[in-house]
Amino acid sequence: MAVKVYKNHGLSFSYILVSFFFFLTAALEIFAMSEYFGFGDGMRNNSLFKYGINAWTLASIGAGVFLPKILDFISAMFKVVKKETFNSRRALLTFSALSIFVLIWALLESFLPYMQTPIFSIIDVVLISVILVWGLLENWFQKGIPKKMFIGFSGVFIILSVFAALPQGYGKIFGLFQHWGILLGSEILFPAGLAWIVTGIGCLILERQRNLGRKMAKVSWVALAGVLGVMVAIYPYAASVRKCHGFFNYLRQQWGGFVESPTLNGLSYIKRSNPGDNAAIRFLNDHIPGQPCLLEFVGAGYNTWGSRFSIFTGIPALMGWDGHVGEWVGARLGDDIRNRVTATQQIFTTPDPQLAKKMLDAYGVRLVMVGTVEKHGAAEKQGYPAEGLAKFAGFLPLIYKNPQVEIYYNPPPVN
Which backbone phi and psi does 83 adopt, to 5 degrees? Predict the structure, then answer.
């Protein structure tokens, strides 16, 4: 298609972008399935997610070209269909049902994860059965092949919904179909069943009016565009308030516990919340040249204060966020990660200076950080024992100290 419309550069480029979108999403699905069946090398889900973001970015850029053409097609469809035939009405009602489906899905999207329960799987079975019986009684599909497809797809959806309602623990293959059934039921079948029923009720209400299909399509399209427009208008304001912790002092007081000034400096909050670490970070940035390896508290990540010296200075640590490092390279370097976590724990906890020195030299550690987190822990992780931390003063020179943080230097071994 891109070659066919190459003279229209924008359209041709959009076809290329959308083709890359389909290629990326298909590749991600292959990786996800290989990980599920244990054939992968431990690729973390966040990596798949980040590739997925890029794929949807490509689709969004392509939509900038395709969406106006789709809108023009819909507008032309409403103008051309003056007197509805059987096929044109069916097309318009299908469009109406799709619009209502998107509308219901958008309204329920925040609640969909809570719908992944056996109760909603049973509801899906009931909805599909009602639609199947309704379609057969009303003779929606008169020809043999469409009717067989309608019955066949309904049967498949009912079977997947039944799988989703059954207890777990019957092996990977059954678990895969069960997982598909849960996702399909909560995110597709339930909204689709509601959309079909709403469309059917609308047809019954407007049954005797002329151009029923056009009216249903127009109402559903206006409702969808209105709701999506409101959602799009709400997000910029709500996100700005959340990211800025409000625009007024009393809102900032509620968010952060104190009045803060807006800034792009990621270190600014540490001055107030942890001034000792802030001063030590400034010392490292101002006085430590090169990239020596440092030893510090291993946190789980995010708000546990783990790896804070490494994060804010760029100096590599013996071990960073163990959970994240394990997700990135767990299958390939799993033993090394476990050894580094164990080494960090052992160096901080052992009261034996000789053992600690031997392990520091083995990993090339030159800086040892002893701060409030190393002493008292963070989140669910406990701090290191006092006797283990006190030993560093006996065999390593102290190069920096404030009321909360001590930094020791481990000289390289003399050959």
Answer: -120, 120
> What is residue 305's DSSP assignment?
-
Angle at 408 between CA 403 and CA 409, to 5 degrees: 150
Residue whose entry in the numeric block shows the structure tokens 């096929």: 87
Long-range contacts of 58-62 (CB under 8 A, 24+ apart): 58/17, 58/18, 58/20, 58/21, 58/24, 59/17, 59/18, 59/21, 61/14, 61/17, 62/14, 62/15, 62/17, 62/18, 62/21
- Phi/psi for 408 (5° steps) reads -110, 145
Give the helix/strand (H/E) hosting 401.
strand 398-401
pTM score, two decimals? 0.55
**Euclidean distance between CA atoms 146 and 250, whole angstroms:** 62
Number of Cβ within 10 Å of residue 336's Cβ equals: 12
As a dihedral over the C-alpha atoms of residue 348, residue 351, residue 352, residue 356, rounded to 10 degrees, the angle is 10
pLDDT band at 209 (very low <50, low <70, confident <90, very high): confident
Within 244-321, residue ranges assigned H as helices are: 249-256, 268-273, 275-287, 308-313
Report in angstroms the alpha-carbon separations of 386 from 65, 153, 263, 274, 372.
64, 66, 37, 20, 12
What distance in Å separates the CA atoms of residue 385 and residue 102, rounded to the nearest whole number?
57
**Cα–Cα distance for residue pair 381/365, rounded to 1 Å:** 23
Contacts of 93 by beta carbon, 8 Å cutoff, 6+ apart: 199, 203, 212, 213, 216, 217
Q: What token pair was written down for 237?
A: 């304001």
Tell me the pLDDT tens digit for each residue of 117-158.
Answer: 788 788 888 888 888 888 888 777 777 787 888 888 888 888
For the ranges 1-15, 116-130, 385-399, the one whose mean pLDDT is highest: 385-399
Please tell me the distance from the alpha carbon of residue 280 to that of residue 368, in angstroms, as a whole number.
12
What are the structure tokens assigned to 155, written together?
Answer: 């049967």
Give the other-Cβ count within 10 Å of 120's Cβ: 21
The residue whose two tokens read 């076809």 is: 15
- In the chain, what's the furthest Cα-to-Cα distance? 97
Between the ranges 18-22, 84-88, 395-399, where is the mean pLDDT highest?
A: 395-399
Query: Could you give the angle at which helices 86-108 and 212-243 cross, rounded to 10 degrees?
Result: 20
